[in-house]
Amino acid sequence: MPFTRTFHPVGQGAFYTEQHHEQGQALTVVYDCGSLTGPKSQFLRKVATALPADTVIDVLFISHFHADHINGIDELKKRYTIRAVVLPKLTDEARILVKLENYLEYGGFSTTLIDNPRQYFGKDTLVILVEPVGGDADTPAGAVTEGDNGPFIDISPEEGPSIPPDFRTSKQDASASVPSGTVLRFRTKSRPFWEYIPFNYENSVRGRAFVAELAGMGISLHSLDNIADVIARKPELIKAYKKLKGDLNENSLVVYSGAIGPGKKLCHQSPAYSFPYPCFLESRGEGCLYLGDIDLSIGSVVPDIRFRLQHKWQRIYSIQVPHHGAIGNFDATVFNRGAQAIISFGTTNRYGHPSAHVISQLYRVAATPVYVTEKLETGFYSLD
User: Fold this and answer.
1) pLDDT band at residue 143, thresholds of 50, 70 and 90?
2) pLDDT value at position 316?
3) If you average pLDDT over residues 208-227, what whole number do you get?
C-alpha cells in the first residue's frame, strides 16, 4: 500500500498531509492548515498546489483555532472537497477567548469557523466535535486497547463516514459529538488498515487568569462575544493581555496516526538532508503523533497520553513538537528514544521559536530534530 506523509514547508504554522493508496482508493487526511510567514499569497499558493486539483480530503483535523493553524482552511475549502472535519469541542468561554486572542495577537479574521463550524463547512461535510478528555488526568480512563470492539467511526469513502447513532447530535444535522479517544478507521473491502485517534486536551489555567484580570477591570468575558465590543475596549484588553504569560488557547487536538495490524516500515527523507545527492534516512515505524500547540508542561498530560495509547506508543516514530518549539509547552518525555521530532517554524518569527533549550532536551533523549521552515528544501516526507 503506497503511503506518503508530508510535513509541508509553510513556515510559522502547520500544514501536514497523509495520503493512502489502497486497492484503487485514494485517501487523503490533513492536519491543520495555516501560516503566519508572509506574504500570505505565497502560502496560499502552496496550499493550492499541495494536492492534485481533484483531491477529496477524507478527513481534516483541526488542532485548535489560532490563525497560524487555520488561516489556510478557506483555501482548502475552495480548492478541494472535504468529506469530514474533526475539531475540538469548545466551551462558550473557550470560544470567546480564542476569538479574542486571534484579534489581539493576529488582527482577527472571520469567526464563523469558530462560532458555527457546521455553517462554515456546509451541509456536505460531516462535522465531528471531540469532547475534552474527562476526569482527573492523574487517574486516566478510556485507554485505547488492541482489538477494542467498542464504537468507532468508519471513515472509508465507499459509503461515507459511518457514525454510531449515539454520537450524532441529531438525525437531520450532519454533525456528531464523540468522546476523546474515539477511533476513526480506514478500511478496504476486506479489512481495516489505518486508524486515527483524537484527544481534546484543555488547559484553562491561563484563561482563568485572564478572565480574573478582566473582572478586576470591570469587564465580563461574555460581554466580549461581539467583535464590535472587543474593538471598543481594545486598549484595556491589550493591557490585560500583555500581563499574560503564554497564550489563551484552552484546547489542542492531539491525533495519533498508525497502521492497524502489523507495523509498517517507512523511509524518511528531507531534501535538506540528502543534498547534493538523493538519499533516504533510516527505515523506521509508521506511527505519528500530531500535538498542535498542546502544553506538555502540565505534569499530567504526557503520562495521560501515554496511558491512553498504551501499546501503540512503541509504534510512534514521528512526533510533531508542539507550538513550534516554544519553551513553555515542552516536555521531552513525550519522545521515544530515537524518534523524529518535527519542528515547524518560520526562520524570521518574532517569538524566538524554536527554543535552544527545547533542542538541547531533544538531543538529551536521543530524539532527532527535523526543522521544517518556509524553505522548500526543508519539507519532510515519510514514504513506503
Assistant:
1) low
2) 95
3) 89
The confidence score (pLDDT) of residue 276 equals 45
Three-state SS across the chain?
CCEEEEECCCCCEEEEEEEEEECCEEEEEEEEEEECCCCHHHHHHHHHCCCCCCCEECEEECCCCCHHHHCCHHHHHHHCEECEEEEECCCHHHHHHHHHHHHHHHCCCCCHHHHCHHHHHCCCCEEEEECECCCCCCCCCCCCCCCCCCCEEECCCCCCCECCHHHECCCCCCEEEECCCCEEEEECCCCEEEEEEEEEEECCHHHHHHHHHHHHCCCCHHHHCCHHHHHHCHHHHHHHHHCCCCCCCCEEEEEEEEECCCCCEEEEECHHHHCCCCCCCCCEECEEEECCCCCCCCCCHHHHHHHHHHHHHHHEEEEECHHHHCHHHCCHHHCCCCCEEEEECCCCCCCCCCCHHHHHHHHHCCCEEEEECCCHHHCEEEEC
Q: What is the chain's mean pLDDT, rounded?
A: 87
Rounded distance, CA 289 to CA 296, Å? 13
Query: Taking 90 as the threshold, does the pLDDT of residue 107 lie above it?
Result: no
The structure's pTM equals 0.91
246-284 pLDDT, tens digit per residue, is: 777 678 999 999 999 888 888 888 766 544 444 445 667
Distance CA 3, CA 351 (A): 34
60 exposure class (CB count in 10 Å sphere: 0-12, 13-18, 19+):
buried
pLDDT of residue 205: 77
Q: How far apart are CA 169 and CA 127, in angstroms?
A: 10
330 contacts 298 by C-beta, under 8 angstroms = no
Report the alpha-carbon distance of residue 102 to residue 213 in Å, rounded: 18
